[in-house]
Amino acid sequence: MPESVGQFEQIILTAILSLGHQAYGVTIHEKATRLAAPKKVSLGAVYVTLDRLEDKGLISSRLSDPTPARGGRSKRFYRLEALGERALEESAATAKRVWETVTEIWGDFAEGVRRRPKWSPVRPK
Amino acid sequence: MPESVGQFEQIILTAILSLGHQAYGVTIHEKATRLAAPKKVSLGAVYVTLDRLEDKGLISSRLSDPTPARGGRSKRFYRLEALGERALEESAATAKRVWETVTEIWGDFAEGVRRRPKWSPVRPK
DNA sequence: ATATTTCTCCAACAGTGTAGGGTAAATATG
DNA sequence: CATATTTACCCTACACTGTTGGAGAAATAT
Fold first, then answer.
1. What is the rounded distance in angstroms from the CA atom of residue B80 to the CA atom of residue B57?
2. Residue closest to D5, CA→C1'?
3. How far is Cα A32 from Cα B43, in angstroms, rounded to an integer?
4. How many CB pairs under 8 A join A and B?
5. Which residues lie below 8 Å from residue B86, measured CB to CB, with a gap of 6+?
């Protein structure tokens, strides 16, 4: 049974996955911000979560060489470890089930306006 | 900007939504267990979370009359409030984005075996 | 030297997740 | 009726996750 991750951890793992070999603090923050919108994501939250995920062995990191650009100090790049992949699989499967369940009732509201519910909102006796 | 909910809270809200007017502790527990599988969900966790969601005004409850069945004591039925609907909408939209992002890389692994990644897992320099 | 830019990291606290056991209210049974 | 059985609710206590805000390090630019 894989480690189970929280909501924000899931977002961070997803960001790392999608960034491939360009995953470091700043880019992860950008990706995470898009995933979590309209909610704001602070940089501090990202780094703290990266630390914890690394402690749990779900991701690993290595420090790069500096790049020849203004402010181009070295970056800490992250990658998903096998444990992290399994945790994300499980967690994403639950996300899918949630989305599908909500969609069955409300329709695909993310694509526009929310539709009518299947049943009328009658209260039990 | 809607209240934001955690992972388990999202599952509970989703369970309530999908149960319609049959949402009370035991049925919510069953739904939540299916949504969160293979992870186990304890009944205690469900009730604590229901309490907190009610305190925050995302759901409301009312006590029913007992039913004439063995052990048929009265149930506390829950329903989504407007705040809860908005919180779930936002939260489910993020779940969708996570699922889609993961799917772009790994394919729809929930339907069977995980496919190959789009890029090779090369580390940065 | 000093300013500016990019980037990492820490400390502290609030909020969420979880287990396990306790309690209550109904019907069934001898 | 006393006790068993079934269904259901609720609390306590603690671990883990989420979040903010700011400090500080390492580059290039002027």
1. 9
2. B71
3. 32
4. 120
5. B2, B3
Say if A99 falls within a structural domain: yes
CA torsion, points A86, A88, A93, A95, in degrees to nearest 10? 160
Residue-wise pLDDT for A3-13, tens only, equals 899 999 999 99
* Partner residue facing A11 (CB), from B18, B98, B124: B98
- The alpha carbon of residue B120 is apart from the nearest alpha carbon of chain A, in Å, by 9
Residues A66/A74, Cβ–Cβ less than 8 Å:
yes
Residue of A6, A101, A106, A78 whose CA lies nearest to B4: A6
Q: Which helix (H) or strand (E) holds B62?
A: strand B59-63
For residue B57, the model assigns a pLDDT of 96
The 3-state DSSP composition of chain B as helix, strand, coil percent (nearest 5) reads 55, 10, 35
Say which CATH number the domain at B34 has: 1.10.10.10
